[in-house]
């Protein structure tokens, strides 16, 4: 496994983990709070930053990206047809889920000469944004945002809508990497017309074997902690566990003595169907995540 093209792995016993340069160059480990701890990191983006913070505390790392480093863009012709349908008539509700997706969509619409019309439709609807990034992307286009959940979870956006009468409402939903067909079906069952704009899809890991090795470590209770920085990463690893017949053992292990840490509530919420205890830092930042894991492991 490499980080940004640089080889960074060594073997501890039968386990291959990312090697800390500090461990190679400094034989004095006194005071290293995570000395002897093995931490699984599932992030694809910004993995180096997280790994190095753990390594500076003496930890060994098993890096197994749960997702591809590069999201797969949806077919441009499909998105253009969807955009034409969106701007064809006014919408009642406009749901934004990611800043990256909104920016990509509006930039594509600009290139097709539909940017102004897309802004007009969004501005004329009641706008719900999942979090500050999607809200900021819309505000940058001059579109006000009427409501956003404090949790930044799409499940709360859906719950907010389901408390209302949606009969005959036209809803535009921007997809955020994973399919939102299930959410759309829930809204349609309540009488709404739903148009999904798929901007990009998050792909599975580029190295399934690496993720498979991480699953073995979790099931074997060899990890001390496992970190997540996105909900799609949670979905990916749970899907991998299920497909390989290890879901039950994997869930049991995560409910046991492994610290499962998520950078924010969106990723943490993805674990809710399995009732897995998760810790989340007060500040949704990588540094805070690392310090939180350190704090929990120091107590054990």
From TrEMBL:
<feature type="region of interest" description="Disordered">
    <location>
        <begin position="1"/>
        <end position="28"/>
    </location>
</feature>
<dbReference type="GO" id="GO:0006780">
    <property type="term" value="P:uroporphyrinogen III biosynthetic process"/>
</dbReference>
<dbReference type="InterPro" id="IPR039793">
    <property type="entry name" value="UROS/Hem4"/>
</dbReference>
<protein>
    <submittedName>
        <fullName>Uroporphyrinogen-III synthase</fullName>
    </submittedName>
</protein>
<dbReference type="Pfam" id="PF02602">
    <property type="entry name" value="HEM4"/>
</dbReference>
<feature type="domain" description="Tetrapyrrole biosynthesis uroporphyrinogen III synthase">
    <location>
        <begin position="53"/>
        <end position="290"/>
    </location>
</feature>
<dbReference type="InterPro" id="IPR036108">
    <property type="entry name" value="4pyrrol_syn_uPrphyn_synt_sf"/>
</dbReference>
<dbReference type="GO" id="GO:0004852">
    <property type="term" value="F:uroporphyrinogen-III synthase activity"/>
</dbReference>
<dbReference type="InterPro" id="IPR003754">
    <property type="entry name" value="4pyrrol_synth_uPrphyn_synth"/>
</dbReference>
<feature type="compositionally biased region" description="Polar residues">
    <location>
        <begin position="1"/>
        <end position="11"/>
    </location>
</feature>
